[in-house]
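Quick one:
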Amino acid sequence: MNGVYKGGFDGMMAQRRVMMKYGGYSKNAKKRSYFSSFVIPVLRSGEYSIGDLFGLVKGYKYVLTEMWDAVGATNFPKTCTKFAVPYFVFDGVLDQNTPASLVQGWFDSIEAPQKELIWFEQSGHNPMGDEPERFKSLLINRLLAVRDKEKNV
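Output:
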């Protein structure tokens, strides 16, 4: 429905359960539930406590209940293409929620002082859970490079 899940958060969770079951969220057959594909990687990252995880879920639910209609109504390829800051997209090649062909087409239209589309070959919609070490390393390296470039300006 115009980019919005019918039923809000519950509708999105139903869609994600189907996507997980058939591998569109994670290539790893052991990560075919929300708990194994999202909760466990977050806790194993070493970056979050259990309390942080509850805050993350609370924020996620807030976005879906309070902001999701506006997000779903946004035509990203037409309205979200110009950025005044460096722009990085991290995406899994196997993602069935935001398929690679759509991501690539949108990314090609983006104008930014620096942009990079980083593909995760072994990931679906959750590269930070499927390839956590590579994801973390790339994210840190890209952000530090931007910081260092800004220091030299």
